[in-house]
Amino acid sequence: MLDHEKDHSSRWAAVVSIAAKIGCAGQTLHEWVKKAEVDSGMRAGVPSDVADRTKALERENRELRKANEILRKASAYFAMAEFYRRAR
Fold first, then answer.
1. Which residues neighbour 47 within 8 Å (Cβ) at sequence distance 6 or greater?
2. Per mean pLDDT, which of 16-20, 40-44, 65-69 is the most reliable?
């Protein structure tokens, strides 16, 4: 895509032309190009691999927080059960 940009009057014209040839929407191709520029360091932003890793770590963190909450509640439940058992 970037190689064909000089053959058109604007970047968008190049995107629309190439998108039609490969059978996708112009906006989709434009987003792919922007992502490729970020990944290659030509444009500022968070590279795909870093964004994917961050998303995975956030998901793992969320799951661990849920597991900790379940364990906290189970611990409190069993502590109360033991308290009432000893109180009899």
1. 38, 39
2. 65-69
